[in-house]
Amino acid sequence: MPARGYEKGDQMKRRSRGLRLGVLASVVALVVAFAAGAGQSAPGGSTQAGVLVSGTTDAITNIDPAGNYDFGTFTLGANVFEHLYDARNGPKIVPSLATGCQPRGSTRVWRCNLRRGVKFHDGSDFDSADVKFSFDRVNNRQILRQAAANTPASLLSSLRSVTTNGRYAVTFNLKNAVSTWPYFLATGAAGIVPSDAYQGNRLQGNTQPQIGTGPFRLVRYTPGQQAVFERFDDYWGPNAKSEGLILRYYTRSSTMKLALERGEIDMAFQTFTPTELVDLGETRNVRVHQGQGAVIRYLVLNVEREPFDNINVRRAVAYLMPRQAIASRVYRGTVRPLFSMPPAGLPGHIDAFASRYGRTPNVAAARRELQAAGVTMPLAIDVWYTPTRYGAASADEYAEIKRSLERGGVFRVTLKTAEWAQYSSVLGNQYNAFQLGWFPDYADPENYVLSFYQDGNFTENGYSNPRMTRLLNQEQAATTLARRIAIIRQIQVLAAADVPIIPVWQGNMVAPARSNVRGIPSTLDAAFIMRYWKLSKS
Amino acid sequence: MAVPAQVESVPAGHKRFVGLRRAFAPIAEARGMARTMLWLGAAITLGFVLVALLAPVIAPYEFDQFRTSEGRFAQLEAPSRDHLMGTNVQSTDVLSRIIWGTQTELKVVLISLFFSISIGVPLGLLSGYFGGKLDRVLVLIMDALFVFPFLLLAIVIAFLLADKVGQGIFTAAIAITVVYVPLYFRVVRNHTISIREEPFVEAARALGAKPFTIVRKYVFFNVVQNVPPLATLNAADAILTLTALGFLGYGIQPSDGAEWGYDIQRAVSDAASGIWWTGIFPGLAIVLLVTGLTLLGEGLNETINPVLRKRPRGPVDFSEPVESE
Amino acid sequence: MAAKGTSLRQYLVTRLLLVIPMVLILLTLVFLLMRVAPGDPVSAALGGRVPQEELDRIRDELGFNRPILIQYVEYLGDVVRGDFGVATTDRRAISDIIVENGAATLELTFFAMVVAVVVGVTLGLLAGRFRDTWIDGGSRLFGIVIYAMPVFFLGLMAQLFFGSYLGWLPTSDRASPLVDATLETHTHLYTIDTLIAGDWDAFVDVVKHLILPAVTLGLVTAGVFIRLVRVNVIRTMKDDYIEAARARGIDERAVVYHHAFKNALVPVITVVGLTVALLLSGAILTETTFNWPGIGLTLFTYLGNRDYTAVQGIVILFALVVVFASLIIDFVNAYIDPRIRY
């Protein structure tokens, strides 16, 4: 195209000087551009040896730990900030900046001893004042205001106060008994920042220095483009395996895929479409690593309004959920059918829905339920999903669900959609059957039951069962793991009988990478943390 | 140079249609390239209209059909005898989605044309003919709408309506209407201002005709000549806007109908994975339909309303829609 | 001459004053649209995790539950004081967004405009000059088809062909990760920044990243130019003075090249200016296709988060740029052609 423009432009040059100059300048610019383009073409060699470059489609809110409650920012922050407990080597949390935390008397008071000799990126020492400071900040009124919609404060809603006990111990006083408190200490809200470099009433801006104790130092952040890290050589634990790390942000997975194929990035984490993953799996020099995941998707039913106030109708839906078709057809094997809210891989998980409703759709049983409900078939229902939050494949997932629910004329489904901001502002207040997803705040089954089955849960589906509430209270107060797990099993059985929510699938933790990236399998587990400091390039 | 002769004389005929006849006479007299463009454009457009009307007959399957009595369609199957353009990730037939999609696109464009013309043209007439405060306020509002990034405007309007009427055809059509009203307003108003001073309007005024009669009888038919080419070019543009909305995920959702822009959005990840048929066919459909409409519009522009012959004043021709993508 | 000066000044003042109500209308429009649209920044960020009462508490805290009129007046007050605020989502100052991401958009659109003008003006001039020949037909058809290409479709094809199949060009972002990581930004225009740094390799890298998005956007825009330039060439060729020049027996080619083309290009400058108004919308599509971190992509992201402050600020500041761009063009035109000042 430009070649043609050049030729024809040539004719005119003879006459009009101004025009000639303009055209000439443009042509030169183009020719230079193309020459430059043609001159260097080294796909695969554009990243440097010691620097690992990873792509993601996640977005960043406030990097300051007191200002984010989203997975993308947590993943960035995990390189920089550490917590008293961390899932350092697997799904199990272990003492990190603490050396241990014990309940004092009841699980309403927890005392933690802190690690000595830990340094922040600015060279200052870590001690109890930093811990108290970091926790107090999250609930500081001004910070709450600044963090606005991104505040992680709800994670610490049980916290009444933090007191220091000398330089290397702190006590957490809680409002109610929380047997899983160390898990909350491992969440993003509990990131430890130095009291002298941060302000108690101001969020640290994204382009201001971010200082933590983690294996990487954040040296540069360009909003929406990339975050650049350097290895922190004074790290108290084993040093990061790469000397540098760049996280690159994409808005579309398709451009990220091309970048990975071209070697502009070394790996990617979150989130390719199923089709892209299948194709990447067949791409030379690229390996798609998959491991235990913790993200789940589920269908919420409003138990207070017609027609799902009738338990038989809810059960009929549960009988027809086409989990296998969704996993294999829509997600091409990158997700697994989920038969209980806590995903497989977490302690206490049981396939409660499978044992009650079977693993595959059962039309005859669904018809029996609707007959018991006394409704005429096909029963017309609206099912809602959102195309702008959980990936475009949601459309395919819900097309599958519609097809299955309509088999044998049991239901007649009208699929409805709403854009996320609108969708999330109404949920169960307006919708009777709707899609939602969850990623864990902490890798414990409690996080998959408490939020969903307690009175006045966030889905607004109106579910309330005194027996369930009692079980949940017992679980929170339980002092031994074995006891908690036993209660969590009962909760799952009860939830499958009541069907306020139907689990659909659990996602694998997926990270496609160039074949020279080492260490990815070691970080793919139910903790759902990409531990970039364990990765390197050979 | 083959400049079509200007038609000044009013052809004999029923009085009520004098204006229309005068408006349409040049079509028959178009020649040269204008004629070629006109007829080529008309043929393509008519083709799509036929496809849309006959969709129930010619589409091999429903737009969301994924199985026949013989079983389920293969997923992402390359073009074959059963599926001339292959199947997509939902196992639906790409050709059928394009055919039903034609219906969607044309419906949206027709609804939005109807509303934007019936709002933009009268407002432009009134504003241009009566002038004064009303004119100034309207111009200001329309200019503000014009400066507003049009995709953003369409998206936000779609948000607003989605709450009430869902993410379907009507919502998309209204979102697009809001984008194009200022354009009709602008063109009609400017033209009205120039017509207002023409001798025949002056004469009518001198004879004591009421303002509304003048606007209706004299100004309207002169101004309305501008509308068909503009509307056709706008229809082309509206399709680009609609598909852009679909591509960004804020357009018509798959549960409400087949839409090309949405299909391309979904096909982006296929295309990068060597599955070309899900994206290229809807893409070509857009290009072909928009090309057809543009050819028709430009052909009309040159025959009915020869900008190339006379123009009130000013070097810039605002009746040319300058939107790109 | 003196008379001309006065009326020109008058014209300028009137036009400038008209900007104020226009901006006010825009402010009101964007404010209202964002508030009335269902969903808000709080639900967009925390919805689906946190109970509605908690969301409502945060809305209260942020003042979103107050009467819309009070919020509006407060917002107007801030804007008048020149305070566009910080984004709710990530607390970036709106002015930073405009400067940093605006520069990315400026760089992309400048080069796109170069492509559009080179291709569009060349083909338009030829089409106009050789009216009704195959050259005319070919150019116009090309212009129409390229205009009919959705920019995301053309962009996708270009990415697959040049980026994936041939492997020549990068398909996203403004620079490679390492260049991006080390580049010192003075102007936020990477081509200029790399030249200031004197880093030739980085410059080449930046230019390579520019090619696909700029050519894609440029080609699509070229369609408009072809049509416009052609029409204007034909129009000027029929103007009296051209006829006069012909009548005086001046060589036809001289007439065409010297007079017709030159005059036909004046309105093109105006249209280049007007196109600025459409850039933001166009940029949303080009930038999402190529992951170009410009203002369109940023706006799109903030819109999804219902970030009131960010969307309002970006739209208003961008509209101001557009309004002033068109003002400058009007002034230039008014200066050149007194007929416009009516």
Report on the architecture of this protein:
The complex is a heterotrimer of chains A (538), B (325) and C (342). By secondary structure, chain A is an alpha+beta fold. In chain A, 32% of the residues lie in helices and 21% in strands. Chain A is built from 17 helices and 21 strands. In chain A, the strands form seven sheets. Chain A has a five-stranded mixed sheet. In chain A, strands 4-5-7-6 form a four-stranded antiparallel sheet, with helices on one face. A four-stranded antiparallel sheet of chain A has the order 14-18-13-17. In chain A, helix 13 links the parallel strand 15 and strand 16. Chain A starts with a helix and ends with a strand. The N terminus of chain A is likely disordered. Chain B has 325 residues and is mainly alpha-helical. Chain B has a two-stranded antiparallel sheet. In chain B, strand 1 and strand 2 form a beta hairpin. The N terminus and C terminus of chain B are likely disordered. By secondary structure, chain C is mainly alpha-helical. In chain C, helix 6 crosses helix 10 and helix 7 runs antiparallel to helix 10. The radius of gyration of chain C is 24 Å and the shape is globular. Chain C starts with a helix and ends in a 6-residue tail after the last helix. The model of chain C has no long low-confidence stretch (mean pLDDT 84). Classes of the chains: A alpha+beta (538), B mainly alpha (325), C mainly alpha (342). Chains A and C meet through helix 1, helix 2, helix 5, helix 7 and helix 14 of A and helix 2, helix 3, helix 5, helix 7 and helix 8 of C.
What is the radius of gyration of chain B computed over CA atoms, rounded to a whole number of angstroms? 22 Å
Average pLDDT of chain A works out at: 89
Shape of chain A: globular
The span between the termini of chain A is: 42 Å
Q: Into which percentage range does the β-strand content of chain B fall?
A: under 5%
Q: N- to C-terminal separation of chain B?
A: 32 Å
Please report which band the strand proportion of chain A falls in: under 5%, 5-15%, 15-25%, 25-35%, 35-45% or over 45%: 15-25%
Radius of gyration of chain A: 27 Å
Helix amount of chain B: 55-70%
Number of helices of chain A: 17
In short:
The complex is a heterotrimer of chains A (538), B (325) and C (342). Chain A is α+β, with helices and mostly antiparallel strands.
